[in-house]
Amino acid sequence: MLVTSHSLFKRFWYPVIPMSLLAEEQPKSFQLLGQKIVLWIDAEGKPAAALDRCCHRSAHLSLGSVKQGAIACAYHGWQYDRSGSCLHVPQLPTDTPIPKNYRIHTFACEERYGYVWVCMGDPINQIAEIPEASDPQFRLIPEFYEVWNCAGLRVMENEMDLAHPTFVHTTTFGSADHPIPEELEITETDYGLRATAILGVVNPKSQQKNLKMDSDITHRQLQMDWFMPFTCKLRINYPNGLVHIIVNTATPIDDKSSQIVQFCLRNDTEEQTKAADAIAFDRQVTLEDKAILETTDYDVPLDAKFEQHMMTDRPGLLMRRKLAAMLTP
User: Residue 272: how many CB atoms within 10 A of its CB?
Assistant: First the structure.
């Protein structure tokens, strides 16, 4: 499955950049589904997105600047608002109407969870709903924003694959005594999938400090939600009442690479566990995943016959079936 070959993927929402990286006067460039887009902050302080091309002579708008919420082209100074309308052409007399066809192509754009989300077409879904993000008992911690050279679907399948920790996460939480989950239940939802599971894991010293648990082993009660096509929420419930939630999106840059956007939510405080310590452990985990995933084939076959499977692959197989059904004319 090559994401740039299917226009359907333009109808989903993707986080593309942290709001903190968008400056008031400087636009940013990003490649989404093989297309260059430009992002900026409009006059109301909201993020805006457009094709990174001026309609005049096709220069990249990301080379320009932001003037009172309008993006100004660095080539001839034409300015556009978030709807794509041209507001100012310096070469025209001030009393001359600007032709209505002086427009750039813009995209739906919203801020959520501290990130700018973009949909390049008529939205087929909503931005993934994470109730804990608005719950005062939880704090949101930005974790990673980096490029991985693998397909988003591989990342999503890995998030819900409970057979790999024993072999991949050997320095973090993988337990040789628990190569498969003790329980695994999967249900289809209107947004994708939900899986619940129980998995035995080891609890190294660094995690004992983070989790405030002295035992060398523990069990994770897991609730995993897959939001089509490339966002996954992993809620980990520990026996002592601590909840650690990881939200991960593999935003498709192109067929071969993904922008990994990950944040976590925890129902503790900075005084109890430093955000830097929580990030450090999750960083170890993600680097173990990255080393494996970047060796996989980016053209993921949706037809099950082209790869071999086992019991714990059920979530991934359902992902493939649901995507295949949506892509079938």
Answer: 11
Closest CA to 151 of 34, 294, 16, 248: 294
- Write out the two tokens for 129: 């709903």
- What predicted TM-score, i.e. pTM, was given to this entire model? 0.92
Round to whole Å and give the CA distance between 18 and 3. Answer: 23
Q: Give the residues across from 265 on adjacent strands.
A: 140, 245
pLDDT tens across 42-89, in order? Answer: 999 999 999 999 999 999 999 999 999 999 999 999 999 999 999 999
* Beta pairing class for 115-119 and 106-112: antiparallel
**For residues 221 and 237, is the Cβ–Cβ distance under 8 A?**
yes
> What residues are paired with 72 via a beta bridge?
65, 79
> What distance in Å separates the CA atoms of residue 252 and residue 259, rounded to the nearest whole number?
6
Closest CA to 299 of 156, 148, 151, 149: 151
| 8-state DSSP, 85 | B
Q: What six digits make up the tokens of 198?
A: 């129980």
The amino acid present at 167, given as its one-letter code, is: F
237 CB burial (10 A radius; 0-12, 13-18, 19+): middle
Beta bridge partners of 41: 47
CA of residue 8 relative to chain centroid, distance: 17
Taken in order 164, 240, 213, 279, the sign of the CA dihedral is positive
Q: Which residues lie across from 17 on neighbouring strands? A: 116
Q: Which amino acid is at 183?
A: E
| CA 110, chain centre distance (Å) | 14
* Per-residue model confidence (pLDDT) at position 24: 73
| Integer Cα distance of 238 and 225 in angstroms | 18
- If you write DSSP's letter for every residue of 108-163 in order, what string do you get? EEEEETTEEEEESSS-SS-PPP-GGGG-TT-EEEEEEEEEESS-HHHHHHHHT-TT
Instruction: Indicate whether 221 pLDDT > 80.
Output: yes
Q: Residue 307: what residue type?
A: E
Strands (E), 228-279: 231-237, 243-252, 258-266
